[in-house]
Design a protein that fits this description.
Layout lengths: L4 E5 L6 H13 L5 E3 L14 H9 L2 E6 L1 H11 L6 E5 L9 E2 L3 H9 L4 E14 L2 E8 L2 E6 L6 E7 L2 E8 L1 E5 L7 H4 L11 E7 L9 E4 L4 E5 L6 E5 L3 E5 L4 E15 L5 H9 L1
Length: 282
């Protein structure tokens, strides 16, 4: 039996209070305490983590995320080093990251109580930015790392290396470095391949390259992808999971590799990634 359940809601979702009460009522029958991140708390910024999360490893066995993929991504970054598994309940649109839809809530919670579930791991990315050869910033992400031009900027040029070996100089709108989980995000929209999220690899996909060819490159999980901003007098930005980022300068060096931490997820036996692709994309 669980010692406790943590719940992270996206308070902006419709009927969110009703869903929370359903979860509380269900676990109350089994005398399992439920801890909900308060509505007054800001929704998970890495610079100011929600206080509750610091105590959760001693109080709960898993975190239930109520929202869409954006909420799931924020929680994954916050809980990456706690070793707590996450169950996503989709209240959004596509919901690739959430394991279940809200209409199957009670059915799925009962599976948790019956211990009828598996634990999976999702590879995360670690990004370091070097400016003038010195450490400038670093962070982790679950989906992707995007180096792109600003809204009014000209084409930018990004020199890309694999393990310090030059691969390509991409002129265009930018480059996406995605994890397998992120293959169904921006990388897919940019023409990248769909990858089973249980795999361990990195995807490099150019965004609207000013070239006669456009191909993604798949590299090993132990490879390090380095991107150097080779354009002057242009706005270039780094974005992590579409939620965190900052402006880059000419000469900045961005190194992306597999993170030491992983996102642990709850998986039900009937889950099928390929069926999910059919349901969500067709």
């Amino acid at each position: 039996m669980f010692k406790g359940i943590g719940v992270v809601p996206n308070w902006q979702k419709e009927n969110i209070h009703k869903v929370i009460e359903e979860i509380k009522s269900f676990f109350n029958k089994y005398a399992v305490p439920v801890y909900v991140v308060p509505e007054k708390e800001p929704l998970l910024h890495l610079s100011s983590p929600v206080q509750d999360f610091q105590e959760w490893p001693q109080k709960v066995d898993l975190a239930i995320v109520l929202g869409g993929d954006g909420t799931f991504l924020r929680v994954a970054r916050e809980l990456a080093y706690t070793n707590l598994p996450i169950l996503g309940i989709n209240l959004g649109q596509k919901g690739f990251l959430a394991e279940i839809e809200v209409d199957k809530l009670t059915f799925s919670l009962q599976k948790l109580i019956n211990n009828d579930y598996l634990l999976g791991e999702r590879m995360m990315l670690h990004t370091q930015v070097l400016r003038e050869g010195k450490h400038f910033a670093s962070s982790i992400s679950l989906n992707d790392v995007i180096i792109s031009r600003g809204p009014f900027s000209r084409i930018i040029k990004l020199d890309t290396y694999i393990n310090d070996d030059f691969m390509e100089s991409f002129p265009g709108d930018g480059v996406i470095i995605a994890s397998p989980t992120g293959s169904t995000g921006y990388s897919l929209s940019a023409g990248g391949p769909v990858v089973n999220p249980a795999l361990k690899l990195l995807l490099i996909t150019p965004i609207c390259p000013h070239l006669l060819y456009q191909r993604s490159v798949v590299v090993n999980q132990d490879d390090v992808v380095t991107v150097v901003v080779a354009t002057k007098n242009a706005d270039v930005f780094l974005t992590l999971d579409g939620q965190e980022g900052f402006a880059l300068n000419h000469g900045d060096c961005i190194k992306v590799k597999r993170a030491e931490c992983v996102t642990k997820v709850i998986i039900f036996p009937e889950s099928n990634f390929y069926k999910l692709l059919h349901d969500k994309l067709i």
